[in-house]
Amino acid sequence: MANHADTSTDAPVRKRKKMSAGRILAWAVMIAFLILSLFPFYWMLRTALSTSRSLSSDPSSLLPVDFTFGAFERVLGLATQEEAIAEGGSGASVNFWLYLRNSVIYAGAVTLGQVFFSAMAAYAFARLRWPGRNLVFGIFLGALLVPPIFTSLPNFLLIKNLGLLNTFPGMILPTFLMTPFAIFFLRQFFLGINREIEESASLDGAGPWRTFFRIILPMSTAPITTLGILTFITTWNDYFWPLLVGNSEGTKVLTVALGVFRSQTPAGSPDWAGLMAATLVAAVPVLILFFMFARKIIDSIGYSGSK
Amino acid sequence: MVSTRTLEHSLDTNRKRTSDLRTALLFIAPAAIGFVVFYLVPAVRGVYFSFTRYNILGTPTWIGTENFEKIAVDPLFWNAMWVTVGYVLLNIGFQTVIAIVLAVMMQRLTKSIALRGALLLPWLISNVIAAMLWFWLLDYQIGLFNQVIEWMGASKIAFFADETWAIPTIAFVNVWRHMGYTALLVFAGLQTIPKYIYEAASIDGASEWTSFWKMTLPLLRPVLAMILVITVTGSFQVFDTVAVTTRGGPVNVTRVMQYYIYQKAFGEGQFGYGSALAVILFIILAVLAAIQLRMLRAGESDLA
């Protein structure tokens, strides 16, 4: 962690390293991995901009085959059925906007609830004095060890018995109030906040609620944003839980819908352009978040791993 | 961890002891409800269900260890077990080696955040999207990889449909998605190794190669142990990629543990049996984590 701060400052004084054979080899390996990481994304775009029917005529062309925005139009519901079929789509309607809305509701609600309630708990664990604090924290952390599959069977039954199957509350509730990781992550930051600021607030007569909302939360916008982004990305990409409890049209999220979309395409001539356009559009919100907050996300991964 | 706690403690005792118990209870109440209702009680219920015959439409009936006895002789369970172990070995083996290589290069070659971001990109998309993307790239008919293979004069490979290739292919897809992420975890571990160690080594004339094997790797061990616990635990629960691409086939070769549990519990409605399988998976993960932490002596650094 400490090194992130000085990486930018030592650039000018960095002594020029000679390009030995080893370094050239290392760069070659690095570039190979960069291509491995990035090229599939390009291929996704190249396919999405092609006409499905024409793809097989020139499968290894680096440029889109028979360039068209048709696949995107099909996914977004802008193409008529005839147009879709003419370009190799299935013609079946895909409620992309509905699934997008569902994903936004699911990931958005989980993120807001989880971050807020975990912040409250983290404050109690980091800042308030009460008997049994460390014991309770330890028990909460223990939940990190439990594999999700183990709790998802009973949780599915609970949601089912509550009559919440295929509803947003049913999907959202299990991770709405806390995850052990969120509490752990925020507690670490709250521990580092200078106590004297809090004390002067309490001398001014501010109670713990005021201190929490007026001092702790505003001072922790950076870690809270980071946690929010990580939680949003994780929830957005969630597949197993929404598959179990959110399988109706009204609650189906993008990952679940894409899984179905893929299994419904005819085995002989799948609408690859349509599939790639759909996956690309489904990934866009997360990619936008990443481009906005790349440094935060990258640094936080180092942080969560090193602790 | 330990040092912050003792510091906290000494700070606490220096102040007037007022217990914030009532406020604290209010602050942890929502999280505590979430913990009890969605983690603690389900965990206990899951263990209970594993000792019952429980059809999804009926009520649980206590049958003692019958589920576990059946599992012991269930060929599909053992198949799922070995398939999963094979997958984990391939996935973790490649992923860890690649991540270490990438992390060391990230540290030695460049501090570029753009480069680290580019390597992280695959991790940002969901397993479902990664699976579909590679399903296309590795398609038998017109997938790019098979075009290249054909162009090189070899015969095409049905990556997802071939019994030999299916598991390595799924392992590869997940290595691709996680390599940058794991590399960043290792990279963070590298930052904890003080610079003077490398300087001392280079003054003593050690090559980069020697200092990697003799210094970096041993000093990285505690961090690697933690990373392995996280990645192995995740790897054992592979599901999404299988569910989207092969659905257990061809002929069971990709029916991994979590997919088998899913099929038993939700496909066939056998919740008791499914829960027993989940209990076994949980025990395996707990034992593995304990062994890994002990073998790699996590938490103990060689840096005295």
From TrEMBL, chain B:
Coiled coil: none
TM regions (residue ranges): 21-41, 85-106, 118-137, 219-239, 271-291
Gene Ontology terms: cellular component: plasma membrane
Protein's GO biological process: transmembrane transport
InterPro entries attached to this UniProt entry: ABC_transporter_permease (IPR051393), MetI-like (IPR000515), MetI-like_sf (IPR035906)
Domain of life (superkingdom): Bacteria
Subcellular location: Cell membrane
Annotated keywords: Cell membrane, Membrane, Transmembrane, Transmembrane helix, Transport
Topology term for the membrane: Multi-pass membrane protein
Main location class: membrane
UniProt similarity note: Belongs to the binding-protein-dependent transport system permease family.
Official protein name in the record: Sugar ABC transporter permease
